[in-house]
Design brief:
The radius of gyration is 33 Å and the shape is elongated. The N terminus is likely disordered. Strands 1, 2, 3, 4, 5 and 6 form a six-stranded antiparallel β-sheet that branches. A five-stranded mixed β-sheet has the order 7-8-9-11-10. It folds into three domains: 117 residues, PAS domain (Beta-Lactamase); 79 residues; 133 residues, Histidine kinase-like ATPase, C-terminal domain (Heat Shock Protein 90). Helix 5 runs antiparallel to helix 7. It has eleven helices and eleven strands. It is 45% helix and 21% strand. The N and C termini lie far apart (69 Å).
Amino acid sequence: MSAIVSPMELTNLSQLPAIAVMEASPDGLVLCDDTGVILFVNAAMAAMSGYHKAELVGQRIEVLVPTSARPSHPTLRSGFVKADASRPMGPAGDVRMLHRDGTEIAVSIALSVLNSESGHSVVASVRDISERVKLERRLQTTNEALALVIERERIARDLHDTALQHLYALGLEMQALEMLVDPTMTSRVTSAVDQIDHAIREIRTTVFTLGSAQRQGSFGQEIQALIRQATRLLGFTPRLVIDGAAQLLIPADVRSELFAVVREALGNVARHAQATEVLVEIRVEDELTATIDDNGVGIAPNALGHGNGLGNLAARADGLGGNFEIRAKPTGGTLVTWKVPL
C-alpha cells in the first residue's frame, strides 16, 4: 500500500496547515512511509541530525539509525506499523540517533501511525536529551559519592568506638609501662607505641580512601599512582596518611596543584635528601594541608628559597591563597608544609 503522501507531492506539503505546524515544532519531526522512506523532516530534525532537509527526504530512515542497530531496524519498524499503536521507542535514555558526523546522540523518540485509505505513514517525534542524560549520570555519581561518604562516616564511627579506642587505650598503657620497665626495654616499648600510632593512622587513611582507590580518575587512584612513581625513584615506599574526605572536598584545580606539589617534594627527597623514610600526610578540613616529612640529611639554611623547585611550590600555594614552608628539623631531615584554603 502506498503512503499517505508520496515524494511527488512533497512540493505541495508546505501548503498544508499540519505541515506548517510540524515545521514550527521545537522537536525534530520525521514523516516516513510504510517502507521507511523519509517523506518530510522539519528544520529542527535537520539541525539535530546535521543533514540538510533535502538530503534526508527520499532516503530510508535507517540513515539515522546507529550502525549496530540497523540490521534489526526494518523488522522492528514493520512490526510497529502492523501493531498500529502509538508508543515511545526503546527504554528511556537508551535510544541513540546517528548524526551525520558519525557521532551518536541520546534521544527520546515517540512514534505514531497515521492511517488513510491510501495506506500508512509513521511520524517520529525526536528530542535531543544528551544534556539530560549527562545531568542524570552526574546526579547518579553524586548520589554514589554521598552514599560513600555516609558509609565512611559509619565505618569511622564504628572504628572510633571499638578498634581505635582499644588501640588508644593500649598505647596509653604502653606509655605508662615505659616508666616501670627496665631501661634496656624502654626502646622496645617506645617502638611498640610508635607501631600502635602507625596502625591508627593507617586505619584512618583506609577509611578516607574507602571505595575510591579503584575508580578511574578518583583521588585515591591518583595519589596511589603518584606514590608508586615515587617508590621507583626513592627505592622505598613512602608512607601515606589521609585524614578527611579528600575525594569530595578537594576541587579539581586544587587537586592538580596538590599532586604537583607532592610529586615535586618527593622528587627533591629522591635527589637530595639521602632519606630512608618519608611520610606524606594530607589533611582535609577548612583548609588542605599537605606535609612531606623525611629523615634525610636536611636542607642547608642557605638553600632555603633557592632551586630544588621550591619557588614552584611556593607559587602554587600563593596562587590558591595559601602558604608554603620548608625547614630543616632539629632531629634531622626536612619538613615541607603546603596549605591552601578550601
